[in-house]
Design goal:
The complex is a heterodimer. By secondary structure, chain A is an all-beta fold. In chain A, about 0% of the residues lie in helices and about 50% in strands. Chain A is globular. Classes of the chains: A mainly beta, B mainly beta. Chains A and B meet through strand 5 and strand 9 of A and strand 4, strand 5, strand 9 and strand 10 of B.
Chain lengths: ~110, ~120
């Protein structure tokens, strides 16, 4: 049973560029959440997708957007990249009816130069 | 929203000693408290959790205690081993919509177990 998979694992962009990160949830999961983890910090909630809609959003600007596909996979898009967007982006999946454990992917390490 | 504070930020212990990490939270409606372990370059993984209807939960060398009155919960690791070295995060869920996908995480504790 494959867990949560993310791609790419590492990427380097320059300020002003755009990036797309991808996530496939654990088998049987229908809900995907994205978290940003800056170096030395805990993960911060960006948003959650369920039934192909954004259901809840954290304190992130509109430059951060996402999408969920019918197969439950998800994308995170960040436009007009800033240096401060450099972080590890973690995808977590659950089944909406389950309460509790988040299953994280290995993350996508974004460096903005 | 919830405010989760975690202490200490770093903790160094000798192999075989115990380690304790403490978190406080602000929202008295919070009812579920997980602990995640993140090894260097790896994903965070749940190691233990507790719901607000119990005060303590144990799993082998790991235990979590919850004090709802004081709004704090702690992770206890006994007989520490070098493989326990990692960053540990506490978390509490969003209670506005009881969304178990939106969690507020502490800032992490880097545990170093010296052989």
């Amino acid at each position: 049973d494959a867990g949560v998979t993310q791609s790419p694992t590492h990427l380097i962009k320059t300020r002003g560029q755009q990036v797309t990160l991808r996530c496939s949830p654990k088998s049987g999961h229908d809900t995907v959440s994205w978290y940003q983890q800056a170096l030395g910090q805990g993960p911060q909630f960006i948003f959650q997708y369920y039934e192909e809609e954004e259901r809840q959003r954290g304190n992130f600007p509109d430059r951060f957007s996402g999408h969920q596909f019918p197969n439950y996979s998800s994308e995170l898009n960040v436009n007009a990249l800033l240096l401060g967007d450099s972080a590890l982006y973690l995808c977590a999946s659950t089944h909406l009816r389950d309460g509790g454990e988040l299953f994280f992917g290995e993350g996508s390490r974004l460096t903005v130069l | 929203g919830e405010n989760v504070e975690q202490h200490p930020s770093t903790l160094s212990v000798q192999e075989g000693d115990s380690a304790v990490i403490k978190c406080t939270y602000s929202d008295s409606a919070s009812n579920y408290f997980p602990w995640y372990k993140q090894e260097l370059g790896k994903r965070p993984q749940l190691i233990i959790d507790i719901r607000s209807n119990v005060g303590e939960k144990k799993d082998q060398r790991i235990a979590v205690t919850l004090n709802k009155t004081a709004k704090h919960f702690s992770l206890h690791i006994t007989e520490t081993q070098p493989e326990d070295s990692a960053v540990y995060f506490c978390a509490a869920p969003d209670t506005v919509r009881y969304n178990f996908n939106k969690f507020y995480f502490g800032s992490g504790t880097k545990l170093n177990v010296k052989p």
